[in-house]
Amino acid sequence: MDLRWQVSVESGRVVGVPAGRVDETTWEAFTGHLTAAVKEAAANGAPLVVDLSGLDYMSSRGLRALTIARREAGETVAITLAAPNARMREILAISRYDKLFKIADSVESDI
Amino acid sequence: MLVRFWGTRGSLPVARPALAVQGKIARALVAASGRKFNDELEAHAWARNNLPFHTYGSYGGASSCVEIEGADGAFIVCDMGSGLREFGLDAARRCADGHPRVYHFFMSHLHWDHIMGFPFFGPAFDPGAEIVVHAGHPDAEQALRRQQEEISFPVPFDWLRARFTFITHQPGETFQAAGLTVSMIGQHHSHESYGYRFERDGRAVIYSTDSEHKLDNMESEKAFEHFFRDADLVICDTMYSLGDTVSLKQDWGHSSNVVAIDLCHAARAKRLALFHHEPTYSDRDIQHMHAESIRYEELVRADRPPLEVICAYDGLEVRV
């Protein structure tokens, strides 16, 4: 399954919207999109919200790409993961990524 | 092949204190409340079927030592952790029944928890025993000799009576040993570590412990997917959560349950054994980690064939 990605600026935030799944076949594309989104957010002085609502699931490759993105973002860009589906919520809990990232119920609730 | 786990704990052997054992007994008594058993066999049968493993059993506390049976009659052993002592006692019993006194060891690396059982390995004193140590490290012999120097142990290596051979292999090399085809892969760990692939009659067992899959080197995981390809059993370092390995415990040289599952999925492996358990984990913690691992496998399986996720414990036998 392909990974699709859209990015927009909404309410002073950069919102990245991946769709599909992130696994061993798509993580490199996901990393590239995330890196570009972090740069865009930094250039705009804006936080980055990753809207997970269109994502079927993300394996460890995608989760680790999120960690790389946050390291690149440093103190400049806050990253929030928003609207994970039930499967993604479980994955975030099992991996303990729910302790590493801020998780918002929806994109709107993170405003 | 038959895989027998003699030690499954990481970093440091552990023994459950009295309080932990008392807790198991109390939970079992409460669960069995009102029941009557005519003998111990009946009680065992009920407990086995009705109590969680963390209450009826234990994952054990010996450090890494795994035996693979089923080659040319020689013993095949991965690592010399504290589980080696029990293996040595059992091997002596089997040798008394006629088993050849030939031992092939395959060393992941030379850190203390992986060699500490060797000074207590009885067959090393047997003048009729032949011990072959396979390693990726050229300093394997030095590591074993050094831990038996007087400052650490009263019996020097030179007092051992078995015939020793140390063989250093190169990563990527495939060689024959004890009737098995063996290949080796370099892994990321302090002072390096090595994983092994053992093959015989179309079956493959992987031993890959103390291996960190680095955040900034995910491209290298393709090599592990190839190394694990179509394996019947992958024994994998799953010491920490993924979150731990990218934060507090980054660069500690270990991996996570979810990375192991992803590698096995990509490799189309059939069965994963969670291994090298964190020494601070209780039996309940390890069983919880096992349940989470099974669930994660379901969540990310998609259209791949199911991967069976088992949790290694001291005494577990797995037929491949």
UniProtKB/TrEMBL annotation, chain A:
Molecular function GO terms recorded: anti-sigma factor antagonist activity
Highest taxon in the source lineage: Bacteria
Organism: Phenylobacterium kunshanense
Protein name: Anti-anti-sigma factor
Domain STAS: from-to ranges: 3-111
TrEMBL record, chain B:
Cited PANTHER family: HYDROLASE C777.06C-RELATED-RELATED, SLL1036 PROTEIN
Gene3D superfamilies (alphabetical): Ribonuclease Z/Hydroxyacylglutathione hydrolase-like
CDD domains: TaR3-like_MBL-fold (cd07715)
InterPro entries for the chain: Metallo-B-lactamas, RibonucZ/Hydroxyglut_hydro
Protein name as annotated: MBL fold metallo-hydrolase
Domain named Metallo-beta-lactamase: residues: 62-239
UniProt xrefs under SUPFAM superfamilies: Metallo-hydrolase/oxidoreductase (SSF56281)
Gene Ontology MF, one: hydrolase activity
Keywords, in A-Z order: Hydrolase
UniProt organism field: Phenylobacterium kunshanense
Keyword Hydrolase included in the entry's annotation: yes
Keyword Hydrolase: yes
